[in-house]
Design a protein that fits this description.
Blueprint lengths: L7 H20 L4 H29 L8 H17 L3 H19 L9 H24 L10 H28 L6 H23 L3 H27 L8 H26 L5 H40 L12 H21 L5 H30 L2
Helix pairs in contact: 1-2, 1-3, 1-10, 1-12, 2-3, 2-4, 2-5, 2-6, 2-10, 3-4, 4-5, 5-6, 6-7, 6-8, 7-8, 8-9, 9-10, 10-11, 10-12, 11-12
Length: 386
């Protein structure tokens, strides 16, 4: 790697903590507003900031200047998560906006070439990140001279504008690379423009609270995803690998939940039946974001830690351990299956009136998270301390 971000592992740990508390809160029967905000402005946003600190400088072959600034970004993000846990959303939103603005000023000078399609996705994601953070403030801090922003718009600016762009953009680079297959640039660009059109229509619908417009935007996004799936299928079909890498299995499962989440959201928008909102949150936050980000962490974090170990051991003149002898595929896949089961069970449990059922199903997902923690964070800690 050209650049090693030492702050990324801390952002990933913070994001894991956010997701753990969101799922634990769901088990305790907290309102879905808290679960949604903790999942979106905590787990999702912190993951993307942490990953971008590693991905953007490397993709541009540019080192970040004033590296100490990322410490302040992390502190602001951690304080935001802390106040979200306290349900103090106005203060949390101010720290979120602070973290995002500082992060933008830190990484923006490193972006020199926006021609690669992945950088296009990440740049648009960065724009939406600032808009979403501002909307978060405007939704929970009423100001007389500013228009009122519905919190749904703030949340979906992050999920659609930031998360979709970041994940699709990065996967267009990673999946062909992992399968040793070249990316179809023409179709990748088509995905980019279809997704941007769909996201704009979706957010317009939320801004004017016209849910039929939201549903129309969801249909356009699904069209873009179908083209993306075709690119993935072609990469898998033409791959020389005997088995699909387990990281890609995380990605694929996440996108299955994404389709389910978009369809459930379109149903809510078209019917006005808000009772299925928790199902939509389960599919989007725990399913799509949870599974996809888990795969991304399995791909990115071992490479970061190994490079840090490489430098440390080389300076000490010691033998450099192999990261793949530390990470165990069977542990990763066990967390994969348990997390998938947890998402499905949580979604189904929303139709039950028994709180014990909801508690038990959320507990399954939490067990999956703990298995994931052991398979990734604990094993990498063992590697680092060898």
């Amino acid at each position: 790697m050209f650049y090693i971000s030492k702050i990324t592992p801390f952002f990933f740990l913070l994001a894991f903590t956010d997701l753990f508390f969101a799922s634990f809160s769901k088990a305790l029967g907290f309102d879905y507003l808290f679960v949604g905000i903790a999942g979106v402005f905590g787990f999702i946003l912190n993951t993307i900031i942490g990953a971008a600190y590693q991905i953007i400088p490397n993709s541009q072959q540019e080192k970040l200047k004033n590296e100490k600034l990322q410490i302040f970004v992390f502190i602001a993000a951690a304080l935001s998560s802390f106040f979200i846990f306290l349900k103090n959303y106005p203060i949390a939103s101010l720290f979120t906006l602070t973290a995002v603005v500082l992060f933008t000023f830190h990484v923006l000078p490193a972006i020199k070439d926006i021609k690669p399609v992945t950088i296009k996705f990440l740049t648009v994601s960065l724009v939406y990140m600032n808009i979403g953070a501002l909307f978060f403030c405007m939704a929970f801090i009423p100001v007389d001279w500013l228009p009122s922003i519905p919190y749904q718009l703030a949340v979906h600016t992050i999920t659609a504008g930031v998360m979709l762009n970041a994940i699709i953009g990065v996967e267009l680079a990673w999946i062909p690379m992992l399968l040793m297959h070249s990316l179809n640039i023409k179709y990748a660009r088509i995905v980019f423009w279809i997704m941007q059109a769909g996201i704009l229509v979706l957010l317009l619908g939320f801004s004017i609270l016209q849910y039929k417009v939201v549903a129309a935007g969801a249909v356009v996004i699904i069209a873009g995803l179908l083209v993306f799936f075709w690119i993935v299928i072609e990469s898998v079909r033409k791959s020389t690998h005997k088995e699909i890498p387990f990281v890609i299995k995380f990605f694929i499962s996440g996108h299955i939940f994404l389709i389910a989440g978009i369809l459930s959201g379109a149903h809510i928008a078209g019917s006005g039946n808000l009772s299925t909102v928790p199902v939509h949150i389960d599919f989007m936050v725990f399913g799509f974001a949870g599974m996809t980000i888990a795969g991304a962490m399995f791909h990115l974090l071992p490479r970061i830690v190994w490079n840090m170990i490489h430098i440390k051991k080389a300076q000490e003149g010691k033998k450099i351990p192999n990261v793949f002898n530390i990470l165990k595929k069977n542990e990763a896949m066990l967390s994969f299956y348990v997390m998938i089961a947890g998402v499905f069970l949580m979604a189904i449990s929303n139709f039950s009136e028994l709180h014990t059922v909801k508690y038990t199903t959320a507990l399954v997902f939490i067990i999956g998270l703990l298995l994931f923690f052991r398979a990734l964070f604990y094993r990498l800690y063992q590697l680092y301390t060898l």
